[in-house]
């Protein structure tokens, strides 16, 4: 069962690696606010930020308007300053909370620590944060993302929806929800902050209710939104294009960075790539290149930046560059607007990012590397002009930029599988989902598909209401409902301990070290853990080995396993275990009975069942649901083994549709797991 050519994954599975965001809280102060004491230099820094000039206007607008839209360039101080201004003005007094939502986890933590530092407090005191699986507020209490929103809305007096231009699903849901809630709670203030001038469409969205709910001249706050534009202070950025399209953008990144390093004056470099895999590759190649480059070999500090990066590495990215050195930060689009890096003078833009695409007809959602929009390209270039005039190197042609790049991205809502979104709304008590007022309506087919899946999982009943207890339990687990269902079933099947391990493993992009060059060794290492049943059981072997080694980093190194990922797995598993306990899952182990484990996986993922085509020598499978052609990904332990029936965890599209994380099943389990679902199939009978 060896895989001859293991390719590092080209996609991020859903769940944690989604960069799901969180909330920064500003809670009532117990002691008096300590900002200002012994913070003279921080105070000065704060006053130098562009938003500072608008402090009074912002406070006035928030006081007098239900919704204030603030547009301002990245780095102008929107995220870190505005909530502090509100707090200083007394909005958090009397037990009320100011919240600022972020679409990315990493940004949540970075912002909370920065603000705590500015306020002279510890994170968790007057400023805290909540992200999925982690709650650092002064009320020490776990809150799932869903519960969090629910809980927040009732405690909050001001909610700042940050990075609204990104139009992530969570942002859009929140905007729809808040608009609804504001009708009932006019005292609730919204701030929508955005880095691009898309403010108008947001304004139109919030404007739409005015005539129905408020007449001119009524008392404050005014319901029509206020728009404030914060003038930036960006420097000029010179744009360079490539003359010919590049074929390998990772390679092009490496040579461009080396060129800048050799020829340009000091200043840090920020590179935009797409995800952990190409970033790790670029870091590796650049490190080698820098080592062999005689001229200035010791001058480069090469650092990756992506969601899920260990804390210590994050801190390196944000710490000032030592004199005589040049920092190269290789990032996902997280550094596009969510985070500000000081000292960047050069930007290298690959022109790509990872984006989610969903086809409701085939019901296939994939994260693919796709071209960015002009709006993104401008944002990326803008990062080079923070401290002085800078340069941006675009790894695409000018002709391409002008004629082919789309002006704006499509809201995530319109290109995603909506299963999690629907369950989130249901849990919030929104029954009429089809009539929900979205900033951008999702395609009805996608909505119907999501309702179908949730119905077949037993999460929704005939009236499309959450079932009790399954629906409510699934909604409590902050993971994809298919994973949640798998966890619930493991309780009955007596294998919850194993399934929690699997769920944690599936939350991580990859537990293997991606290694260009050491392919053979990696394959051999994988073979040591490979299980005939498939990848999920292989995960259990890896986990067992890791525990037996005493969680040793040397053991990981020897086995081509990513130590950081394994530490994260342990952490997530522990958190999942706590949730499982809370919702009454029986935490038993099935020891080595892998059949019940596979049954539990099937109970969650029956919709992803595939059958090997009888005549196929090439490993062609068809999905039972939609007769889509799919293949087992070369990274799977079942690659070339090709069992007759499998379920997969996720699909990746490259030249073909590949199934990642695959497990072999018995087809009779499908009927057991989802009689309704498989009765509807008018395909060949399932069991022969
Ligand atoms: O939200 P916006 O992009 O408008 O700006 P911000 O995130 O509030 O950042 C304002 C300033 O705070 C930046 O220019 C940085 O100098 C600083 N900052 C920082 O040093 N470290 C952070 N983690 C965040 C911000
Ligand atoms: Mg910001």
From TrEMBL:
EC number(s) reported in the record: 3.6.4.13
Keyword Amino-acid biosynthesis: no
Signal peptide: none
Highest rank taxon of the organism: Eukaryota
Classification via InterPro entries: DEAD-box_helicase_OB_fold, HA2_WH, Helicase-assoc_dom, Helicase_ATP-bd, Helicase_C-like, P-loop_NTPase
Enzyme class: hydrolase
SMART domains: DEXDc (SM00487), HA2 (SM00847), HELICc (SM00490)
Keywords: ATP-binding, Helicase, Hydrolase, Nucleotide-binding
Pfam families: HA2_C, Helicase_C, OB_NTP_bind, WHD_HA2
Full protein name: RNA helicase
Phylogenetic classification of the source organism: Eukaryota, Viridiplantae, Streptophyta, Embryophyta, Tracheophyta
């Amino acid at each position: 069962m060896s895989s001859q050519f293991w390719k590092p994954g080209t996609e991020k599975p859903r769940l944690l690696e989604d960069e799901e965001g969180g909330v920064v809280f500003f809670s009532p102060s117990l002691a008096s606010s300590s900002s200002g004491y012994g913070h003279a230099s921080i105070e000065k820094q704060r006053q130098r930020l562009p938003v500072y000039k608008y402090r009074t206007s912002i406070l006035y607008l928030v006081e007098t308007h239900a919704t204030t839209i603030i547009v301002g360039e990245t780095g102008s101080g929107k995220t870190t300053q505005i909530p502090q201004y509100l707090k200083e003005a007394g909005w958090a007094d009397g037990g009320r909370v100011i919240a600022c939502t972020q679409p990315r986890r990493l940004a949540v933590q970075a912002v909370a620590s920065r603000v705590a530092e500015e306020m002279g407090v510890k994170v968790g005191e007057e400023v805290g944060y909540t992200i999925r699986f982690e709650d650092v507020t002064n009320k020490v209490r776990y809150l799932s993302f869903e519960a969090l929103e629910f809980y927040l809305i009732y405690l909050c007096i001001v909610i700042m929806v940050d990075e609204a231009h990104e139009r992530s699903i969570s942002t859009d849901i929140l905007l729809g929800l808040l608009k609804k809630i504001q009708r009932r709670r006019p005292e609730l203030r919204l701030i929508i902050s955005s880095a691009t001038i898309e403010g108008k469409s947001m304004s139109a969205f919030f404007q739409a209710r005015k005539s129905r709910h408020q007449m001119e001249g009524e008392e404050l706050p005014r319901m029509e939104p206020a728009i404030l534009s914060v003038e930036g202070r960006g420097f000029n950025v010179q744009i360079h294009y490539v003359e010919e399209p590049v074929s390998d953008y990772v390679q092009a990144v490496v040579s461009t960075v080396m060129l800048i390093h050799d020829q340009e004056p000091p200043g840090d470099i920020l590179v935009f790539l797409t995800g952990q895999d190409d970033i790790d590759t670029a870091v590796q190649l650049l490190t080698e290149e820098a080592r062999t480059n005689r001229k200035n070999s010791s001058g480069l500090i090469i650092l990756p930046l992506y969601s899920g990066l260990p804390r210590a590495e994050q801190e390196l990215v944000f710490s000032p560059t030592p004199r005589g050195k040049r920092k190269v930060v290789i990032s996902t689009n997280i550094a596009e607007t969510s985070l500000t890096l000081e000292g960047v003078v050069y930007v290298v833009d690959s022109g790509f990012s990872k984006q989610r695409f969903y086809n409701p007809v085939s019901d296939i959602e994939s994260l693919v590397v796709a071209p960015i929009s002009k709006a993104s390209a401008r944002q990326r270039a803008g990062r080079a002009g923070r401290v002085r005039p800078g340069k941006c190197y675009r790894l695409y042609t000018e002709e391409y930029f002008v004629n082919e790049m789309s002006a704006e991205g499509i809201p995530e809502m319109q290109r995603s599988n909506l299963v999690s979104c629907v369950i989130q709304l249901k849990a919030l008590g929104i029954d009429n989902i089809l009539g929900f007022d979205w900033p951008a309506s999702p395609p009805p087919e996608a909505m119907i598909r999501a309702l179908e899946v949730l119905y077949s999982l037993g999460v929704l009943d005939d009236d499309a209401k959450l079932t009790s207890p399954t629906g409510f339990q699934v909604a409590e687990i902050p993971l994809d409902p298919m994973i949640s269902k798998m966890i619930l079933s493991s309780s009955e099947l007596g294998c919850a301990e194993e399934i929690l391990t699997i769920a944690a493993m599936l939350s991580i992009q990859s537990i293997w070290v991606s290694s260009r060059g050491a392919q053979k060794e990696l394959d051999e290492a994988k073979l040591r853990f490979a299980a005939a049943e498939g990848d999920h059981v292989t995960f259990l072997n890896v986990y067992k080995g890791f525990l037996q080694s005493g969680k040793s980093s040397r053991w990981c190194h020897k086995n081509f396993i990513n130590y950081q990922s394994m530490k994260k797995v342990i952490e997530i598993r522990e958190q999942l275990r706590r949730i499982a306990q809370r919702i009454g899952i029986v935490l038993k182990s099935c020891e080595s009975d892998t059949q019940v484990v596979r049954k539990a996986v099937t109970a969650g993922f029956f919709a992803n069942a595939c059958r090997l085509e009888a005549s196929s020598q090439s490993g062609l499978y068809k999905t039972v649901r939609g007769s889509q052609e799919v293949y087992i990904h070369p990274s799977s332990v079942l690659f070339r083994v090709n069992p007759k029936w499998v379920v997969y965890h996720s699909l990746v599209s490259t030249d073909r549709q590949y199934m990642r994380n695959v497990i072999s099943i018995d087809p009779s389990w499908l009927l057991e797991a989802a009689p309704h679902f498989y009765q509807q199939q008018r395909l060949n009978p399932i069991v022969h």
